[in-house]
Amino acid sequence: MQHLFDFSDFNVYDPETTNLSVGAPGPDLLVQCCEIFKEATNHRMNYERENNSFLFQYGPLLGINDFREELSRFLTREYGSEVKKSSLLLTSGATSGLHQILSSLVDMNGVIFVDEVTYMIALEAFQEFTGITIIPVPFLDDGVDTEELKRLVKLHQFPPHPKKLFWGIYYAIPTFHNPTGVTMSPEKCQELVKIAREFGILISCDDVYNLLHYRSGCPKRLFAYDNPSDEDYAGHVISNGSFSKILSPGIRIGWIECPKRVKEVFMQSGIIKSGGSLNNYTSGIVVSLLQLGLAKRQLDIYRAAYKERMETVCEIFQRELPSEVKFIAPAGGYFVWLTFPASFDATAFNLFCQEHHKVIAIAGPRFSATNAHRNCLRICVVFHNVATMRDAARRLCQAYREYSEASR
Question: Which of 181, 186, 238, 362 could form a disulfide bond with 330, CB atoms 3.0-4.6 angstroms apart?
Answer without folding.
Answer: 181
